[in-house]
Amino acid sequence: MKISFLAALSSIFLVKVDCGILDPRHAKRREQISLDGLWKFSLIDYDGAKKSVQASDYIDIMAVPSSYNDISASENVRDHVGVVQYQRSFVIPSTWGSKRIWLRFGSVCYSAGVYINGELALSHEIGHLPFVGEITSFVKAGDVNQIEVLVNNTLTNDTIPQGDVEILTKQNYNFDFFNYAGIDRPVLLYTTEDTYINDITVQTAIKDTSGIISYDVVDIFDTDGNLLDRYELQFGVRELSWDSTSFKINGKPVYLRGFGRHEDSDIRGKGLDLPLILRDYSLIKWIGANSYRTSHYPYAEEIMDLADSLGIMIIDETPAVDTGADLLRNHKQSITELISRDKNRPSVVMWSAANEPSTGDEASEDYYREVIAHLKTLDTTRPVTIANNVGPSADHSGQFLDILSFNQYNSWYNNEGDFDVIFTKVLTEAEEWHYKYNKPVMITEYGADTLEGYHSLPSFIWSEEYQNELMSRNFEVFDRLRAKGWFVGEMIWNFADFKTRQDFKRVGGNKKGIFTRQRQPKQSAHLMRRRYWSLAAELDNATIPADADNYIIGSSSRTKKEL
Ligand code: GCB
């Protein structure tokens, strides 16, 4: 079969899909079949032909969900630019003959064209977001059906994030994480009746000591009183508010202590991995953090579900990373899809409209006026921020935001080895943001690449000691800022080491994690644990875990009775 490379490349798929997108796993009257597992897999050449499988090249089978890049031993797969084809068959039970049948993907990176029994049934672009469509008329109930998914990882000036294709086989991009691609999240077939629940919106507030819940959907019954659809939504009762100096939950000021993160791990790339997700949450709890940012794209719904139930606060970010001001349509679309997916989540306490976009350009003023106005038409219950690296004097975005966030890499991308600059530079930038716009301020990135096991006394760049010293110098200035009354959070870059494109600045990827890519602590994780738990004790009355400090002499955080 020949596949039109150009059609796939430009993502001109004219099939409408529904992004309203209640996760069907929480529906109680729908039947479901998972299409996760092993699919047939082929690389498609730019001329539309399947690349032949050599003995030494790749195995033409792929795991779903997973990114395809790091599974095979072949560079052709890892660095493939353009279209790949996934195929499998599935059986629709004959009992589904009287139902509406739907197909849902948790995320395909970057764009997808889905063919059922040879016909184009769904298409979607923008990775990291779910899409669903009805396929009743495409399938045969009680029979074997074929599904084929064409996945295109090409990034251009119009995609979000942006990239450019230098020659047909070479993809360039500026953002600092590997452009993993494939069917990264689960694939599910499910049924509904003719009438079904398409969307639910729940809003909550607190009045005195009572929680108030408003919702705009109910169970759906037919005229004879039969239950047609039921959806069980996990929600939390809380009210967010903010003003020029604070960000509050249920009237209490919040100080965010957390991380920037990535969906990233050995072999599966950005593919959903439940054991990894649980490990990450154990570490987040162990270290005493209360929050993180989904840098630089929306994370899997399974990750968000756990944040909801474990009480972790999320700054939920769109895939606009390092973008210019010429993406309006896709940027707004990603916000629409993100908010329709995550609007009911108690864990989501803030939206991040972009990471390090070019907000110093004059054109960005009109651009962000429109982007943030669009976001506010969809949700006014949460504050919105941008993780900025353009300083406040050049910035054009702060006027539209509720909370101002900045990324600053002192003693790393500047003044290497000189920690004395940290205090003044962080203090000055935070004050400039606050006094320019009269809004709360937080830091969303600071950090140092660190090679685990490399020690140096006195500290030297890339050593574990260097990372600790850099962090500790930042902690000092964060505390000075906290005392000012308008500094609302600190997030280190990064939770764990992660893969990037090949680059002389990166040794096996970005190593700014306080955990390794295998999720073991560097020395800095222990330091961070002492800080985050001390903040939790001071601000939230938490009890510092007994093992946060080793006993040395005299008093100890271990209880007297243990000693
Ligand atoms: C940044 C980016 C992040 C990078 C980080 C770094 O400012 O937001 O994506 O990974 O710096 O380590 O350079």
UniProtKB/TrEMBL annotation:
<dbReference type="InterPro" id="IPR006103">
    <property type="entry name" value="Glyco_hydro_2_cat"/>
</dbReference>
<dbReference type="InterPro" id="IPR006104">
    <property type="entry name" value="Glyco_hydro_2_N"/>
</dbReference>
<dbReference type="InterPro" id="IPR023230">
    <property type="entry name" value="Glyco_hydro_2_CS"/>
</dbReference>
<feature type="signal peptide">
    <location>
        <begin position="1"/>
        <end position="19"/>
    </location>
</feature>
<keyword id="KW-0732">Signal</keyword>
<feature type="domain" description="Glycoside hydrolase family 2 catalytic">
    <location>
        <begin position="246"/>
        <end position="535"/>
    </location>
</feature>
<dbReference type="Pfam" id="PF02836">
    <property type="entry name" value="Glyco_hydro_2_C"/>
</dbReference>
<dbReference type="InterPro" id="IPR006101">
    <property type="entry name" value="Glyco_hydro_2"/>
</dbReference>
<protein>
    <recommendedName>
        <fullName>Beta-glucuronidase</fullName>
    </recommendedName>
</protein>
<feature type="domain" description="Glycosyl hydrolases family 2 sugar binding">
    <location>
        <begin position="34"/>
        <end position="192"/>
    </location>
</feature>
<comment type="similarity">
    <text>Belongs to the glycosyl hydrolase 2 family.</text>
</comment>
<dbReference type="Pfam" id="PF02837">
    <property type="entry name" value="Glyco_hydro_2_N"/>
</dbReference>
<dbReference type="InterPro" id="IPR023232">
    <property type="entry name" value="Glyco_hydro_2_AS"/>
</dbReference>
<dbReference type="InterPro" id="IPR017853">
    <property type="entry name" value="GH"/>
</dbReference>
<dbReference type="InterPro" id="IPR008979">
    <property type="entry name" value="Galactose-bd-like_sf"/>
</dbReference>
